[in-house]
């Protein structure tokens, strides 16, 4: 196994994880555009974990993408 295969496979797996995490997040969609109320919302519990995991996964994905460009 060469490093390019490992990088591309890792990038693909992280992309699938990001898709799953984004779909798990609760959101009001476009209600703010059409006059929905904007209330301050505190993330707690599982919602906070999913939000943080999405950000971490995105950072890992960007790192893998840059590594794929370099190697």
UniProtKB/TrEMBL annotation:
Q: Which UniProt keywords apply?
A: Cell membrane, Membrane, Protein transport, Translocation, Transmembrane, Transmembrane helix, Transport
What InterPro entries does the database record attribute to this sequence?
SecG
Name the domain of life this protein comes from: Bacteria
For this entry, list what GO says about its biological process: protein secretion
- Which residue spans traverse the membrane? 12-37, 49-70
Q: Which Pfam families does the UniProt record give?
A: SecG (PF03840)
One annotated GO molecular function: protein-transporting ATPase activity
Mode of membrane association: Multi-pass membrane protein
Q: Per the record, GO CC terms?
A: plasma membrane
Q: Where in the cell is it found?
A: Cell membrane; Membrane
Q: Where is the signal peptide?
A: none
Keyword Transmembrane helix applies: yes
The record's comment on protein family reads: Belongs to the SecG family.
Q: What NCBIfam families does the annotation carry?
A: secG
What is its biological role? Involved in protein export. Participates in an early event of protein translocation.
Record's protein name:
Protein-export membrane protein SecG
């Amino acid at each position: 196994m060469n490093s390019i295969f490992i990088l591309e496979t890792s990038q693909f797996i992280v992309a699938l994880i990001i898709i799953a995490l984004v779909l798990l997040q609760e959101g009001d969609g476009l209600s703010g555009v059409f006059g929905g109320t904007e209330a301050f919302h505190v993330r707690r519990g599982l919602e906070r974990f999913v939000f943080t995991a999405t950000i971490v996964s995105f950072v890992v994905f960007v790192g893998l993408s840059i590594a794929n460009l370099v190697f």
